[in-house]
Amino acid sequence: MPSLGQGAGRAGSGKLVPSYRLTQPTLMATLTDRVPQNITGKYYVDSTCIDCDQCRAISPDFFGRTEDGMSFLKKQPATSDEVAQVEEAMTSCATASIGSDGE
Ligand code: SF4
Fold first, then answer.
1. Number of CB atoms found within 10 A of residue 26's CB
2. Position 26 in a domain
3. N or C: which end of the chain has fewer CB within 10 A?
4. Is 88 close to ligand 1, i.e. is its CB under 6 Å away?
5. Total domains in the fold of the chain
């Protein structure tokens, strides 16, 4: 039987996985920290935004910039093409500041 050693462990399934997967938190936007300028709806930007401009460059029809330097959803996507644009921006955000669990 192989030794688990340092830096490895077993997940719930019993499968051997690197330990960073057991301890590293998953980055994701937090609805309670949403930027107030977001329009109501599924997608939003939270206060962890670092104003890198990536989402606004990818999807300028949907993302705006607040006066204090954060992005926000200025329009919710309605079609599948629009959803794809917003989701591309979401997956490109280095700080995972764009959420999709809004209402
Ligand atoms: S890509 Fe993310 S960090 Fe960059 S401006 Fe957009 S929400 Fe902010």
1. 5
2. no
3. N
4. no
5. 1
